[in-house]
């Protein structure tokens, strides 16, 4: 142990003797490690954000969207079909197994008014289960009920943005807003959810019973989507299949005019993107670490040649080959670890800079720091071994005579 | 056991295989050196004296023949075992001093202890190194780096380093080769003092007057020993230095 410490001291002294060279050699490691740390930090941040977005969509959700509509050879895009009905939703709830809740959704944009102010916003017709399916909750008041749905009640739950825009942030419960000149009573305020993955303000919303939307506001006879909550993640694929089968059956052989999406597919697609990004950044960072390692090897070979005489002296006074090997190996590892530690600091600083300047979320994990540290030590050992072994195999006499 | 020689060479040969020609540097040397001796090995360049010295110093291995150091046959030892012998049993002093630059005198002297197996504590190492420096009269200069010391002082540091592990044998390869006359005599004085304290010394030199300070002269030519005789009119470094000083004084006082 004491011997290792003494060897370490010799290494530090040798490195300090040539400060500029040490710094330049370390720079390779610093850039490599900093790149790894920043890449993983940015990648993890993106992944965490995507995961949060996915989670905010709700738990175990299978969605049904209208398909494309074609008329006389002209084909509309997805969602152009207008055949998804509340009856479909009821049939799903009745016949598909493993379903916890089914909600109908009718989306619409409306100009709304309150307190002499007006605002254009998304008015969503929903079932009372909507909030639990979307894993959303209220900050005050209560969600409307099935009675409101059956009676197409003029009640509404509003998001934070609506409260800010029309009520100057005051609690609006009990007040009314006018949608298409009809008064809707505000019964609840949604907990703020912020901006979603696509940059959309999720709090800029008014939720009313879907029946109210169909009969009074949008006056559409079809649904924008049906959200189905499965009892568990394992059941999602089956619910998706059963729903598809059921809807096809209900359309008895006509061209399918709907799509059934599984939330997991979405999550996988999104995380796959961020995983690819992380892997790509990681690969670039890995390459720069190897380049850093080669830099260390190069400088260690130079150092061994320069210090051949010193090696000879050490051998003459009794250093074994093993002692010389250890000395140069410790020197290489010290170089790479110092570079690694600096690199970790620079990397964390870099990802914080990215986070604050570019407004990207970053997440530096302890694991990535630990891995970067040990990886840099490993680079030192790997690339330091060959020069160190070369030094240890020198012949004492040849080494002493070296000019 | 008391009479066991420090060095016992029997029919030692050293052949260098360099390219096409084999160089037969040492051609059958037999030599016995007892404890407490002070031997000068002399000869012209190429006489094989340095090769012999390197072999005795376990820096190199003989091609043929037997070498007993302190009773142990070192001709069969491997690299690591030879390193341990150099560390514990032999102190080596070189013509070019071979000190580590940018390293203090004290740390240079501590160097062999760094490679000793039963490791001493840092304080013990320092104490031993200081004692060793005091033996060569450099106790006050322990913090100086080699480039702050004169040639003679550097060679004293090298001697202190050679002595620090209390070896049975002190070897010196042209120790005065890089020094002026007065400093050479001073170094020989150090050797004589150490020899008086019981340390066996073998040195290589080509200067006859330097050999006069030793007790026995071995002359080599073409890889073999041609003469081996005790020194008859041995010089004492103290008196020689005194004489030199008087001569210098005289020059300065002369009109």
Explained architecture:
The complex is a heterodimer of chains A (403) and B (255). With 403 residues, chain A is an alpha+beta fold. In chain A, 56% of the residues lie in helices and 19% in strands. Chain A contains 13 helices and twelve strands. In chain A, the strands form two sheets. A six-stranded mixed barrel of chain A has the order 4-5-10-7-9-8. A two-stranded antiparallel ribbon of chain A has the order 2-3. In chain A, β8 (176-179) and β9 (182-190) form a beta hairpin. In chain A, α3 (86-95) packs across α8 (236-250), α9 (263-306) packs across α11 (321-357) and α11 runs antiparallel to α12. Chain A starts with a helix and ends with a helix. In chain A, 42% of the residues are buried. Chain B is an alpha/beta fold and 255 residues long. Chain B has eight helices and ten strands. Chain B has helices at 49-56, 79-88, 105-114, 122-135, 151-163, 181-196, 208-211, 237-253, and strands at residues 7-18, 21-33, 38-42, 64-69, 72-73, 90-93, 169-173, 200-204, 216-221, 224-230. In chain B, a hairpin with a 2-residue loop joins β9 (216-221) and β10. In chain B, α3 (105-114) crosses α4, α3 (105-114) packs parallel to α5 and α4 packs across α5. Classes of the chains: A alpha+beta (403), B alpha/beta (255).
């Amino acid at each position: 142990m004491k011997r290792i410490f003494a060897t370490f001291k010799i290494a530090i002294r040798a490195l300090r003797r040539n400060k500029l060279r040490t710094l330049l050699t370390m720079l390779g490691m610093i850039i490599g490690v900093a790149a790894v740390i920043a890449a993983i930090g940015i990648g993890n941040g993106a992944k965490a954000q995507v995961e949060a977005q996915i989670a905010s969509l709700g738990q175990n959700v299978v969605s049904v969207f209208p398909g494309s509509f074609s008329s006389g050879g002209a084909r509309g895009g997805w969602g152009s079909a207008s055949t998804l009905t509340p009856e479909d939703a009821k049939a799903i709830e009745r016949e598909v197994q493993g379903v916890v809740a089914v909600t109908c959704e009718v989306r619409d944009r409306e100009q709304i008014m309150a307190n002499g102010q007006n605002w254009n916003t998304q008015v969503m017709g929903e079932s009372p289960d909507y909030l639990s399916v979307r894993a959303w909750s209220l900050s005050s008041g209560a969600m409307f009920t099935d009675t409101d749905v059956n009676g197409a009640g003029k009640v509404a739950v509003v998001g934070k943005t609506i409260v800010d825009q029309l009520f100057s942030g005051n609690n609006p419960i009990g007040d009314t807003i006018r949608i298409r000149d009809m008064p809707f009573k505000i019964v609840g305020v949604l907990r703020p959810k912020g901006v979603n993955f696509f940059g959309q303000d999720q709090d800029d919303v008014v939720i009313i019973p879907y029946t109210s939307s169909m009969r009074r506001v949008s006056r559409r006879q079809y649904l924008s989507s049906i959200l189905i909550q499965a009892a568990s993640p394992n059941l999602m694929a089956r619910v998706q299949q059963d729903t598809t089968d059921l809807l096809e059956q209900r359309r008895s052989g006509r061209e399918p005019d709907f799509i059934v999406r599984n939330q997991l597919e979405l999550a996988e697609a999104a995380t796959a993107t961020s995983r690819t990004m992380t892997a790509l950044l990681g690969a670039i960072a890995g390459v720069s670490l190897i380049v850093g390692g080669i830099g260390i090897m190069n400088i260690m070979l130079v150092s061994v040649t320069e210090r051949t005489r010193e090696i000879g002296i050490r051998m003459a006074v009794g250093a074994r080959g093993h002692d010389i090997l250890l000395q140069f190996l410790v020197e290489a590892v010290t170089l790479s670890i110092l570079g690694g530690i600096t690199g970790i600091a620079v990397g964390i600083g870099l990802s914080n800079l990215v986070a604050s300047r570019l407004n990207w979320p970053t997440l530096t994990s302890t694991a990535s720091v630990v891995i970067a540290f040990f990886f840099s030590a490993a680079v030192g050992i790997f690339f330091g071994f060959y020069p160190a072994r070369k030094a240890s195999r020198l012949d004492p006499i040849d080494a002493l005579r070296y000019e | 056991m008391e009479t066991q020689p420090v060095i016992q060479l029997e029919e030692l040969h050293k052949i260098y295989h360099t390219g096409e020609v084999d160089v037969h540097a040492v051609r059958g040397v037999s030599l016995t050196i007892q404890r407490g001796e002070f031997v000068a090995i002399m000869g012209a360049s190429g006489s094989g004296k340095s090769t012999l010295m390197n072999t005795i110093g376990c820096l190199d291995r003989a091609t043929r023949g037997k070498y007993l150091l302190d009773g142990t046959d070192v001709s069969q030892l491997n690299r690591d075992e030879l390193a341990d012998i150099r560390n514990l049993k032999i102190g080596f002093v070189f013509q070019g001093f071979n000190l580590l630059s940018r390293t203090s005198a004290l740390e240079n002297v501590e160097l062999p202890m760094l490679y000793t197996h039963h490791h001493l504590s840092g304080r013990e190492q320092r104490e031993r190194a200081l004692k060793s420096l005091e033996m060569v009269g450099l106790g006050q200069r322990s913090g100086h780096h080699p480039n702050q010391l004169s040639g003679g002082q550097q060679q004293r540091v090298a001697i202190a380093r050679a002595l620090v592990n209390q070896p049975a044998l002190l070897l010196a390869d042209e120790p005065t080769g890089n020094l002026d006359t007065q400093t050479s005599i001073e170094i020989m004085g150090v050797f004589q003092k150490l020899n008086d304290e019981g340390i066996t010394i073998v040195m290589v030199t080509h200067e006859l007057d330097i050999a006069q300070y030793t007790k026995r002269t071995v002359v080599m030519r073409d890889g073999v020993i041609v003469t081996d005789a005790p020194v008859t009119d041995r010089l004492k470094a103290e008196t020689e230095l005194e004489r030199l000083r008087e001569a210098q004084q005289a020059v300065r006082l002369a009109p």
